[in-house]
Specification:
seven-stranded mixed sheet; 4 helices; about 35% strand; GNAT family N-acetyltransferase; Acyl_CoA_acyltransferase; GNAT_dom
């Protein structure tokens, strides 16, 4: 399953919100934190199409990611995959592409999410343990 990237436009917001909710719902419900209004507000606050890419497999949008360029590093804000697309190497493909840039990468993952094991497997280390999220950092050669 090799994805292609497609650009994001403003009109994609609602579809991307639905995908985000689909991807996170199980983890958020398990933590008692599922709230569609909060999901909408969080995505809206970081909705920058120029930083975003759809992941497309066989003509279907199966996920998306958002990477904010910062001074000398990258901030991964979102990496969401539809549940049926998870566990097939798509997330690893995105991370490998980002790591190939050679810049440090930071991100936050929801506490008790399966994403934590994923990021640790890909060389990210914990830099802060917060109430809701765990902050990670990856550096080339670390």
């Amino acid at each position: 399953m090799t994805p292609t990237l497609a650009p994001v436009v403003e009109a994609d917001f609602e579809a991307m919100l639905a995908l985000r909710i689909e991807a996170l719902r199980e983890s958020l419900e398990r933590l008692g934190r599922f709230n569609p209004d909060v999901a909408r507000a969080r995505l809206k606050s970081q909705f920058r199409p120029e930083w975003m890419h759809h992941l497309v497999v066989d003509g279907e949008r199966v996920g998306y990611f958002t990477v904010e360029p910062r001074d000398g590093e990258l901030r991964l804000h979102h990496l969401y995959l539809r549940p049926k697309a998870q566990g097939r190497g798509l997330g690893a493909w995105v991370i490998a592409g980002l790591q190939a840039r050679g810049l440090p990468i930071t991100l936050a993952a929801l506490r008790e999410s399966r994403a934590n094991a994923f990021y640790r497997r890909h060389g990210f280390r914990v830099v802060a343990d917060q109430e809701v999220d765990i902050e990670y950092r990856w550096e080339a050669g670390a």
